[in-house]
């Protein structure tokens, strides 16, 4: 089993751009990177996602993680690797998908909801866990499951989470977040996405300033 460590980032935030089109990608990616994001996910149920990922990879500095979400097959992993993606996010726990991504040196973040799924993902070598939908579990639900997980596996809250929720999750030790519709919705202008990105970064930085 290969496990790729989740990288240390100034801000443990993943921008999720579900629905983005290739001709929108460059400007939106530039705005989010300028705002301070260092991890960006383009779900595979977006229009021509691998083309958008390839564009994003070429725009981003080497220290910015670019990758795919909603990755469901080994073939998807291989194609993601072929366009330079280094982040693999899935909605489920599939040992073969996680292993294939790790073999390419990708950071892996499978989706989990229960203790069984979370421990299975850890056993499969996941870099981090994506608790999804976090809005259903809430901070208390994630905290209860987190108590039985390996301490060195980062835990992220994704699904129905915005910068307004950071503080509640931080109280139970969760400081990794995936921001989807609160940051980007299909058809949004790049300038609007950038403004939301700046607000999210400011909220995260304020949270970190208050860290004990």
Short description:
The protein is an alpha/beta fold and about 210 residues long. The chain has helices at about 20-35, 50-60, 75-80, 95-105, 115-125, 135-145, 165-170, 190-210, and strands at about 15, 40-45, 65-70, 85-90, 105-110, 130, 155-160, 175-180.
Q: Which keywords apply here?
A:
212 residues; alpha/beta; eight-stranded parallel barrel; 8 helices; 17% strand
If you had to describe this structure to a student in words, what would you say it looks like?
By secondary structure, the protein is an alpha/beta fold. The chain contains eight helices and eight strands. 42% of the residues lie in helices and 17% in strands. An eight-stranded parallel barrel has the order 1-2-3-4-5-6-7-8, surrounded by four helices. Strand 6 (129-131), helix 6 and strand 7 (155-158) form a beta-alpha-beta unit. Helix 1 packs parallel to helix 8 and helix 3 (74-82) packs parallel to helix 4 (95-103). The longest helix has 20 residues, at 190-209. It is globular and about 45 Å long. The protein starts with 12 loop residues before the first strand and ends with a helix. 46% of the residues are buried. The mean pLDDT is 96.
Report the average pLDDT across residues: 96
Distance between the termini: 35 Å
Task: State the helical fraction.
Answer: 40-55%
Q: Per the principal axes of the C-alpha atoms, what is the gross shape?
A: globular
Radius of gyration based on Cα positions = 16 Å
For the biggest β-sheet, the strand order reads 1-2-3-4-5-6-7-8
In terms of per-residue confidence, which ranges show pLDDT below 50 for 5 or more consecutive residues? none
Q: Major sheet, described briefly?
A: 8 strands, parallel, barrel
**Number of E strands:** 8
β-strand amount:
15-25%
* Count of discrete alpha- or pi-helical segments spanning 4 or more residues: 8
Query: What order do the helices and strands follow?
Result: EHEHEHEHEHEHEHEH
Class from helix and strand fractions: alpha/beta
